[in-house]
Amino acid sequence: MSGLFAQVQGHEPKSMPPNGPGPDLWYAVFLSALGPARTGSGLAVTTARVELTGRIYMPFRSEPEDLIDPKLATACDVMFDAYTGDFELGGNARNIDVLGSQGQPLSARFGYQSVDGATYRVADIVIPIVVNDAWVQNA
Questions:
Q1: Rounded to 5 degrees, what are φ and ψ at 119?
Q2: How many domains does the chain have?
Q3: pLDDT means per 10 residues in the chain (139 residues)?
């Protein structure tokens, strides 16, 4: 996608990457929430809000320590640019809810995550996607 990550996974990892934690960033995207969107539904169909988490991982013990957070913030910036640049995900969605009209906006939270006994500094990107006509309403 961006060339920024040593590895990208389409699921929440249960173990560290095959090549070990290494000094590099890695990225995983997984489903966080699914439900009707607050607005945008019609009388016959329901619009959906799909929330993905895009988690950026960096080994907690990376050196120099002062560059861990700036590197994660830069990676978030790259991903925000990619998601706002492909606003409709190639036509598969109405839009990425960048400003949060249907709930939490495109945003990131930083923290720590243990995977397979190793600790990582992580950035969790909330990727809110609005999908038109997801479910048919029947009376």
A1: -100, 135
A2: 1
A3: 80 77 83 91 89 94 91 96 86 91 95 91 97 88
